[in-house]
Every structure is written in structure tokens, then in C-alpha cells.
Amino acid sequence: MPLNEGSHDDAPREGFEEELGAVLRSTGEGFSVEGRHELVSGGLTRGRRRLVRRRLAVTGGALALAAVGIGGVYGGSLLGIGGKATAAGVAAAPTPTSDTAKATEPSEAEKRRQAQMPQAQIPVKDIAAVIQANTPAGQWQFENLDGKGQSALGVYDDGAGKASVSVGLYRSAGGEGEAGAGQVECPSEVHVSFDSCTSKRLAGGDRLMVIQGYEYPDRREDTKHWRAVLLTKDGLLIDASEYNAPAQKGAAVSRENPPFTAAQLKALVTADDWRPLLDQLPKLPETATPPGAMPGETSGPEIQSTTRSLLPEGLRVTDGDGDHGYGFLVVDDGKGKSLVEINVQPRMGDVAHQLYASGNVTTLPDGRRVKVTQETAEKGGSGVVAWTVDTMTADGFRVVVSSLNAGGYRKAATRAEPALTIEQLKTIALSLRWLQEPKK
Fold first, then answer.
1. Phi, psi of 396 (to 5 degrees)
2. What's the rounded Cα separation, in Å, for the pair 356 and 267?
3. Which pLDDT tens digit goes with each residue over 146-171?
4. Fewest CB atoms less than 10 Å from the CB: which of 96, 198, 302, 333?
């Protein structure tokens, strides 16, 4: 049956535990890593959207799967069908953007990086045919069936309401084996709002994440985003997203939930039909800079390690993660959880005049500028405040440390003030250890 006229009936897929999942923004598709309010304000113009995930091999980033495109993924956006590639990382960037930003709008640096990446020329109709063959009966309308690329976008209707569905094929920038595992690990709820998420290793060595969440983390609209990502043992990714609306954004909700259950999403991304198409993905170019990173950026693990070494005694770390140029920890001194975020950015001198033009700014004898901000957290829940120390050396090396009196964004305050005082935040941000860390 023609692709745009209907779908054949398909037997129910084998059970996949229970319906679960949660979804993140994707640096091309999915949830954005956002809410790092203070780190965004003042012009972190070189940030890229990343989705930060727990124990992330990405990300963002991010991503929070990030932008999910997926952090650390090479390829076109799930929405960039048959056209020029857009950001495909769910990670999105070391610095967040507001949740009103479109995940399909990468930074200029990311656009330049993507433009240099080899893109597959898989006929979109072939990707659409595999989607149709591995989903329940329904009417399909696919976009750009005459085009070529690494993804397909369609609108599916089983009679219960139209739903946007997309599938993208990518190579993991992490390579084969465990190096890319972070791309299929559930994100931390510090940055991503979801109902459920599961990540598991399948028989044969592939890894699968299924996540059910929302297009807008603040849930200002009822658009749900459910997603399944399969990472094969040879480092290839199949990323499927579905919504309970005929478009990812800007369309009214058409049904209570997206059409496919967790078991059906699993069946879609694990179908053997994908292998001939995955074999058409181009090899990744050799590069000295980690995917998604900018030259000179500090890695997530480095930021985690340095920050932990600088924490005052008496704090217990309950959560943490990071990506290129960004890291976070959730700490607790016995009086309530407190989120601590760190951005480390080289070569920011050209925007110093914007960042430190006003506010509580001082200049140290060695030329380093220090700006202190204490205000209500823009993305925080009830009673949440953000304390931030923003520093930059004379040659443009920037370290920003921020803390909330809550364990995450959009969560109510857990304590009267952040666990770290302004002086303790200064100690972390101004430590010379940041300048001594090898930049990868």
C-alpha cells in the first residue's frame, strides 16, 4: 500500500515490561537542557544546547538525548528531513537556552560543525517504509518522500487523533561499546521533567532507553513527547519520537497520549529492517575535539572532579553529571538539597564588556573580574533563589558557579538559602585549579 495512503496491520509487539519512558529534549529533537538560569543570562553566546544525562557519555547535554537529537551524535536533525543537517545531539550545549527556544535551531558554532560532518543520503521513502512496516495499522502522511537524508517525519492517525512521529538514524560519536552508553541512559530529573524512563541492555549487547515526558518541561502545554533510542553494539543509533499532537510544537493536542506504547516503540527501534539503512551511514571523521565540544573546553568529568575537590566539608553529593563546558552537583548538608552548577568557558573575552557592564562587579589585582548575583531563580519553583558568582580572567577564561536552595529547577525550595554561601561560591569559581586542568 502506498506510504501516504495507509499502513498494513501489524501484530501486537512483545511486552516491554510496562509502559514507561520519559523524554528529553533533543539537540535536534527532544528536551532541552535548560533552567541553568544564571549561566544563561548575560550572554553565554557561545553555548550550545545539550541535554545532560545521568552518568552521561554525552549531551547535554544533553541532554539531556539535550537538544534529543542526542548529545554526542553525528547526523541531521530528526526534523531536517532530506535537507541540510541541523543539530542532532540530545545533548544540547554546555549552556542552556530558555525552554521557548526551538531544539531545531543550533548555535552558529554547531551549524559550522555540522556542515563539516558527512551526511547519509538514504532515501526518505526507505526510512518511512520501515516505520510503516513496524507500527500498528493507521494512516500515514510523510514529508519529503522524494528527498534523502538520515531521518523521516510523518503524521500518523489510527482514528484516535493525529500524532507526529519521527525516526532518525545516526552514528554515535562515542564509538562502539560502552563509549556511547551515555546516550541511552536516563537523564537526571534535575534538568528534565518526565513521568518515567528505563534504560537496559538487550540480549545481544544493544542498549535501549525508553522515556515518556513532555515537549515543554514547565508543562505550559499538554504536548507529550515519548521517545525510544537504541544504541547498537557497533555504535549506531535509532532514535524514534512521537507526540500526542500532529506537530512537535505549535499544534493543539489531538489525543491524550502519543499513539505507540513503550513495547511498540521498542519494536520499532529494534526492527531488523533498519540494518540495511544503518549500513549507509557514513564513517565519522577523525577529530581531536570531542563531538559537541569546542576546542579548549573542559570536559564534564574534569568539571565534576574539580568541583568536588573544592566543596567545603560537610556536604554530601546526591547527584551530578556534566558535559563539555558544564557540570552540576546536587549537594545536601543535612538541611535540604541544593543544586550547584558550573560553566567553564575559554575565549570569552570578546563579550566581557557585556557580561560585566553592570551589577555587583569587582576587579581583582590580577585582573580577574567577579560578578555576584542573588535573585529569584527564573525557572525555579516556589521560593527558589539563585546565587551566582561569574568570573573571568584577563585573557577571557570564564568560570561561573551558581547554586539554588532547591535540588533542581521547577522544584520548590528545600531550604531558606543555597547550601553554599557567596564566599564559598567565590572560592570555587576563583580557584586556580581551573587553569591547571588539561583542556580536552
1. 90, 15
2. 52
3. 999 999 999 999 999 999 999 999 98
4. 333
